[in-house]
Amino acid sequence: MNRARPEPGGGAADAGGAALPGGGGPRPRPPRAGATPPGLLARVRAGGVAALHRLADIVVPPLCLACRAPLADHDSLCADCWRQVDFIRPPLCERLGIPLPFDAGPGAISAAAAADPPAYDRARAVARYEGAMRQLVHGFKYHDRQDARHLLGRWLQGAGTELLSDADLLLPVPLYRLRLLSRRFNQSAELARELSRLTGVPCDPFVLQRTRRTPRQVGLTREQRRLNVRGAFKVAADRVGMVDGANVVLVEDVITTGATVEACARALRRAGAARVDVLALAMVTNPLHLPA
Ligand SMILES: [Zn+2]
Fold first, then answer.
1. On the chain, which terminus has fewer CB atoms closer than 10 Å, C or N?
2. How many angstroms separate the alpha carbon of residue 80 from the centre of ligand 1?
3. Higher-confidence residue: 106 or 248?
């Protein structure tokens, strides 16, 4: 399975400055009198692009996406933060996506999944909800750190390879309207949109709707969380046809007890979804360690 891996140095979006137009193209033409030699033109253009990149670095200097320490490249983490991201790696429980202590073969499920099977088919997450991943999620959710979206999108793509290969639709977990207004954007929708851009799987943030406002889940027990969100989601009446018979992937920032994605999955099943998978940035893998 193709897991997300650290990319020291990050895949900066501005890499590849060498592929500039005008540098030794396929149509060599004799230089006219007074014309700029093509090689010089390429060097001038390259110099201009490099200067623009330097200017961008001055205006928005590259910072670690988690701890904001200065870096050489945009779109990455410092070495300390990389070490702190606890990537979830196989062997995994086929259903819950939590790490298993040993490889019991394909399709193996955990004792937790056997005892209390989830309403969704499979969940996968990039990393445990700890350390730098927790900082990244918080920064993205509450502090408008939109610069992290490219890295987070690539990580989701890596962690969700199996789920995305034959997915029909990406669906972000919706916020209630008032909360959306107060926070200005829905972090799950931003992640789903970035993932859609990377994979080509369509994304629709208006399929799932919250039917009522639910108290925040923070500080609640597993059972309280379950009751809190029970029946809180529905598929929009004009979009049931998109869900019926489709393989859908729910996109979420953090799976804590799974209560929210369970409630979403039930609503999608009622609308006829063929398969409901869940893809998240982070997961609380030990229920005794619920975040406060
Ligand atoms: Zn850092």
1. C
2. 6
3. 248
